[in-house]
Amino acid sequence: MLLKIVKKGFLRKKIITTALFIFIMLSTLLVASGTSVIIQLCQSLNYLFVKADLPHYIQMHGEALSQTEREAIEKFAADNQLVMDQQTSELLNIYSSNLYLKDMDTAEVNSVMDVSFVKQNERFDYLLNLDNKIVEVAQGNIAVPVYYMQLKDMKLGDSIKVSDGSFEMTFTISDFVRDAQMNSSMISSKRFVMNEADYQLLRNNIDRVGAFEYEIEFKLNNLELNGIHFSDINKLSEFSNEYQAADLPNKGTEITYHVLLLMNAISDGLVAVVIIIISILLIFISLFCLRFTILATLEEEYREIGVMKAIGIGRKDLRKIYLSKYKVMAAAGAVLGYVVSFLVQKVFTKNILLYMGTAPVSAIQIVIPLLAVFIIFLVIIQFCKHVLKKFDKISAVEAIRSGTMGEKESNRLQLKISKSKVMNINILLGIKDVLGRLKLFRLLFFIFFLSAFIIIVPVNFLNTLQSPEFISYMGVGRSDLRFDLQQSEDIDQRFQEVVSYIQDDEDITTSAQFVTCRYQVLGEGDIWENINVEIGDFSVFPLKYLEGAAPANENEIALSTLNASGLKKGVGDTLIIQIGEQQKELTVCGIYQDITNGGKTAKAMFSYNEDSVLWYVISADVTASTSIQEKVKEYSQSFDKVKVTNIDDYIKQTLSATINQIKLLVMLAFLIAVFIAVLITSLFLKMLTAKDSSQIAIMKSLGFPISGIRVQYVTKTLLVLAVGIILGTIAANTLGEGLVSTFMSAVGASKIEFIINPWMSYLLCPCVLILTVVITTFLSVLSIGKFSITKTIVE
């Protein structure tokens, strides 16, 4: 009996039932996909780190290592109780002007990546192939990072070349490399794996095409790699301080395990978080969608409900009858959404599988998404039970007599039609009805509000990532060109040569020089910690500061958000820093955002010792008539040991994978929002016209044309839509920024400010939503012509 009633209910409302089913399926599909992406990311990253046997601490060094220095490192490792194993890896850094990838006639002068040729490590920090096995390369071949496989569509059998005109080596791609240390596109260094014999030949000629660099790597005791978690950061800091205090080679960046973990996870983790945010919003919308459906059903079947009550069917039985339909619908939608998620998640995990590989399948990959879907099912059922409590208020006599629920709402906002001499009467009646029944229309408003929010937040975030202004979140002021000079034997001489060239270049309008040095700062508990300080004039290419301003004299220092948080310092606080043999007291003058170097940087203006220099950076602007790309080419050819970057290219190359994923989510969010608008508008208007059937019939009898009555309903819908879009846009730029900032704060960007494309966010997206709603409204109110005053009186 119950199954027959449920089946009849489905057949009577095929379109609404199908649409609602799809909507529930979509909600569960996204929740399952989002949780699956997070699980896949964690497990694949963990699996990659374990297979690669990643080090916990890495000290880069850009100068030649003497035998004495090598022995000192080995002795330090042997004597230090924290050290489990140590190795020093040699990198052959190839200048971009001497590197040819795929196109044998064009050098990589526009690349933002530092390319190193290496041989396979012997003890740990292994470079893996696409099967996550230690890659082996035959003579004449080379294994290329997956970053270039994706960026340049490189394939097995393609050639790459290293050449300065007089010396040349050509290699055939035999494999692609997953590098747990430098995998992420946000890490601007990449390692190519060579055969031992080829490596020695290139090493003997490295002065022609590149320079040496070293990775001094340590594995520490009791820091396991068998789980995705932040290792004991205090122990890593303790070891870092011990290494720096030992006066060992340190002319370069220091990298810790948790920084590598964070940089590998950020791109795909960001995509997963956006999916989860959209799915949570969809859950809320699906509940309102159900509410609309239930209320529309009660409105249409009000008299039938009264009859069932009159013949003795109890309230619990009535609720059971109607609830059964929604239980079946929710269960079917949830199951199908869960099954389909296994196909959809492949789209979102494609980048994870490419860069990290597939971890062994575990029960958690099935159980957690299934649990998330089951929770959604329970929430839907409990919400349906709550809405169906309206049965308790239905009077059998009143339902049989009137046939409508007849809910009234006091009209506190009056709109006097008699005083209006300009506006069309039908438009006025539509506005008056919305103002008189705000409680009813607020449901539709909430749906339009969330639809606008779902569209605009991903669009604004995508536009922010693609904007040149995003460079400010990397702790760098906006400029046309950036020159990076990494540590090497002749770094000071090369720096002066570039500065002199720039000063004589008439195409350069503005330039500024910055040097990064490593010092020690007194942290909490009177413990000395390492800190990288960038020194220069920061008024030339200014940053945006969350608090305070840039340093203006030698006694001030600005901190990145993560450094300020770690050191427990705010604007106005003092900081003790060790500079050579002296301690200097500085005042914190500003706090800024930075997602580079693990998010821990600082900026100051005091004098520095050349022995403490890690690297130099020069920023420059060119004249309006100058081609930036041509300038990049000119400087790359003139200074082959200097990395010259177009800032726009830097953002595109380092964030390309994330941007492509977010583009996919933008399209998905847009389609979802349009589907929501169509579904909810049609459901709402179906319920509203059923409720207003007698009123519509009366207006027809008074001479109102059907087209005029339809205009009233279009006016009602557009008024609610306009308010929803306006407030949804405001919320997207406030609450949406807050959601994104919450995630980005983990990497040093605690306050993301959306960079908005007005044409896209304020014109195109709202217009598409408005057009969709208008068409849906007209189609939904076509049935108005069937309402008759005679039929209403008889009923």
From TrEMBL:
It holds the Pfam family FtsX. This is Putative ABC transport system permease protein. It comes from Anaeromicropila populeti. The chain crosses the membrane at residues 270-294, 326-344, 364-384, 440-462, 664-685, 718-739, 759-782. Residues 276-383, 668-788 form the ABC3 transporter permease C-terminal domain. InterPro entries: ABC3_permease_C, Membrane_comp_ABC_pdt. It is a multi-pass membrane protein. Its main location: membrane. The keyword Transmembrane helix applies. Keywords: Cell membrane, Membrane, Transmembrane, Transmembrane helix. It is found in: Cell membrane. The lineage of its organism: Bacteria, Bacillati, Bacillota, Clostridia, Lachnospirales. GO terms for cellular component: plasma membrane.
